[in-house]
Amino acid sequence: MIDRAALLGGVPMKALSLVLLTFQNSALILIMRYSRTMPLVNGHRFFSSTSVFLNEVIKLAISACVALHDISSNAGPNTSAKSILYELVTGMFAGDSWKLAIPAALYTLQNSLQYLAVSNLDPATFQVTYQLKILTTAIFSVIMLGRVLSTKKWTSLGLLTLGVAIIQLPQDTAEVTIEDSMTGEEAKIGRRALQQAGALGTLAVRSMLASATSTEQRLYIREDKPVDPDNQNRSVGLVAVLIACGISGLAGVTFEKILKQSPPSQKPVSLWVRNCQLSFFSLFPAFFIGVCWVDGREISEIGFFAGYNFVVWTAIMFQAGGGILVALVIKYADNIAKNFATSISIIVSALASAYFFKFQITLVYMIGTAVVIGATFLYSQPEAQPPIKTVEYEESDIGRHSTGLESARPLMMMQPMRSDSAEIERAESPPKRKP
């Protein structure tokens, strides 16, 4: 239930949560991008696998603190701390909670792909393209949950895809300058061919050097220079963000399906305990696959926290706090307000990318962004419900003259349940025995 009247220091929680979510969505991508392109820290760049692992550790700690606070608030005054901690632990591992390991592993892979994407895409393009997770979530919900989408929602999903496709055009058209038009198409093609040949030659030389040197020399070649934002592989970044969108939709729908298939006799689990479960099961793939298997050799040689500084820690904290802010918005606002915050963050990211990362805001980019934002709002609009016709029951002869329970039941089904009608239903039905 949405609580719109809650206040914090005299400020409505709805407005505060929206402002914080907008700031977090905008700043997170910018900080993540800068952390992958900033000058090296002591000659090294941090490993994204370690940041993903620490992100899950921090989320687990925050969720556990909030869950313990909720448990202690509902417990008696004489409840010991050991009992509160025991209730949290038993709630995390009760029933079929082990099934959450599947979406947890998917979310871990998604976070890793986000780092790969922002390393090769500007924040503005990443922010808009990442909205395709709405499309993937809808498709997986239809396939896995049998959900039926209306024509309006399918139309909005089509517009969303069209807008993201339009966004990809500026990177090609922005290179067509006045000089290109004066020198002709042949000169433009030749210049691009030379650039591609030079990139391939550089890659070949670096590969030969890497195969002929020791491990220490290979690390030096990889880490001796800052990442040049102008020489990023846009195709790699685009593929990474598309896969991340697909995994995001699959993880979300899988998580929802697991919750719906939980036994009805199982004790209800709070939102913060669910966050604890996801973060706990995410630690295993983040550590054993990312830290140990992918980057284990380099981490053992240069250290777990190599390349860390204030910027990296800020990016980790912002990413860990994103889920909490979304939970606050869902509790104190609504889905439309969340989309409004996301739309503002897209605009802020574009302006900041133009200022800090020399991103060119073209007319085509503005059109594509407008289409994506409009499609997002269209998809979040509630479906029109048919009007409830209570007049037929109120004006019928049975409803006016009869006082039996049969005549009252249709009207109670069409109107909100009142206390007197609830008493009638309880008196009519035999009491249920507790198992």
From TrEMBL:
Q: Where does the chain cross the membrane?
A: 15-34, 130-149, 235-255, 276-296, 302-328, 340-357, 363-380
Which GO molecular function annotations are given, in alphabetical order? pyrimidine nucleotide-sugar transmembrane transporter activity
Q: Where is the composition biased (Basic and acidic residues)?
A: 420-435
| Superkingdom, taxonomy of origin | Eukaryota
* Topology in the lipid bilayer: Multi-pass membrane protein
Any one of the GO CC terms: Golgi membrane
| Region ranges (Disordered) | 415-435
Localization per record: Membrane
Query: What keywords appear on the UniProt entry?
Result: Membrane, Transmembrane, Transmembrane helix
Tell me which SUPFAM superfamilies the record gives: Multidrug resistance efflux transporter EmrE
Task: Show the InterPro entries listed in the entry.
Answer: EmrE-like, Nuc_sug_transpt
Q: What is this protein called?
A: Nucleotide-sugar transporter
